[in-house]
Design a protein that fits this description.
It is a single chain. The chain is an alpha/beta fold. Helix content is 35%, strand content 14%. It contains 11 helices and 10 strands. The strands form 2 sheets. Strands 3-4-5-6-7-8-9-10 form an 8-stranded parallel barrel, surrounded by 5 helices. It has a two-stranded antiparallel ribbon with strand order 1-2. The N and C termini lie far apart (39 Å). 45% of the residues are buried.
């Protein structure tokens, strides 16, 4: 497992991060979740990403239990704040000082740690003054509850404004966590250049496009039983990748993966890691063997000619519109 610096800092993360968005405390039983985390650790993963909103706080609890007994200094634990949680009352959401301060205390308790390595604003909050949000994050850094601060799905202008305020307050933003894959490239035109200028790295989620880039979904055929696209509660997040045109073109990537001697899943993960502004790719798993296989993408170098062939194969099904990096106008949407 290779490690990379996160932003313009001395902080390193494993280039493949284990994330528990849709698995822990929801799709996967706790015992299986713990065994999958152990497989990630055995594979060299040191960085773990979660959020208070995952399974309405329960995913943090599962991760805390799974990491119990590990040397804390040898781990990098990442979590986030923004979405409605707990009883979802008027102050149980957003990036107000009240919600940030209460949320970090809850996250630390559930994760069974005194601090998190990276605390991330899970979306931009249009309803709270940015100065209030940045002041709260700065105070958490000074308290030692948070070592570094990042954001998630902020657009270029929001990152610029946030970084300016952060530096004025004596800290800095070092990362952004956007969706990014062969099919979803909306950060390339504006977010990545701005991040490079301001000293942030990307920690990308859904590098396999919700599983579409594994090749398991075939055009004209129903989604496999037990898959994300077959689950009515989850199918909405994958729908944008499920047209027959997209699925047909994804099948055209298999010869490229075969040429590299890797699986399509490994190819998808390795592809995002070729971007020099990407520090890490977040990968989830419901079984130990899944994470073990996916970790083999670490260190894979894809030749320039194959990178170019990816663009030729996928063509106009690639989404590049930078306006699709956005946060909800209302926090409770």
């Amino acid at each position: 497992m290779q490690h990379r610096y996160l932003g313009n800092s001395g902080f390193k993360v494993s280039e493949i991060i284990y994330g528990n968005w849709l698995t822990h405390a929801s799709q996967v039983a706790d015992e299986q979740a713990i065994s999958t985390v152990k497989a990630a650790l055995e594979g060299g993963v040191t960085t773990f990403d979660t959020a208070d909103v995952y399974a309405n706080q329960a995913a943090e609890t599962v991760l805390g239990n799974a990491l119990k007994g590990q040397r804390r200094e040898g781990l990098e634990i990442l979590t986030k704040v923004y979405w409605p949680v707990a009883a979802k009352g008027p102050n149980d959401t957003g990036l107000s000082r009240k919600h940030i301060m209460e949320s970090i205390n809850g996250s630390l308790k559930r994760l069974q740690t005194d601090y998190v390595d990276l605390y991330q604003a899970h979306r931009f909050d249009y309803e709270t003054p940015l100065e209030e949000t940045m002041q709260a994050f700065g105070d958490l850094v000074r308290m030692g509850k948070v070592l570094y601060v990042g954001v998630s799905e902020w657009n270029a202008q929001q990152i610029r404004e946030g970084q300016k305020l952060a530096k004025e307050l004596g800290f800095k933003l070092i990362s952004n966590q956007p969706q990014y894959s062969m099919l979803w490239r909306v950060i390339e035109q504006e977010v990545v250049p701005t991040s490079e200028e301001l000293g942030l790295s990307q920690i990308v989620w859904s590098p396999m496009a919700q599983g579409v880039l594994t090749g398991k979904y075939l055009p004209g055929q129903p989604a496999p039983a037990g898959s994300r696209a077959a689950d009515p509660d989850l199918s909405g997040i994958i729908e944008k990748f499920m047209s027959d045109e997209t699925l047909t073109k994804v099948q055209g990537l298999k010869p490229l993966a075969d040429e590299l001697g890797i699986t399509m899943a490994q190819f998808a993960i390795a592809w995002v890691l070729q971007n020099k502004n990407v520090a890490a790719a977040i990968v989830g798993a419901s079984k130990p063997e899944q994470i073990t296989s996916n970790l083999e993408a670490s260190g894979v170098v894809i030749p320039a000619e194959i990178m170019a062939k990816v663009d030729q194969v996928l063509g106009d099904v690639i989404e590049r519109d930078p306006s699709k990096t956005k946060s909800p106008e209302g926090r409770l949407c």
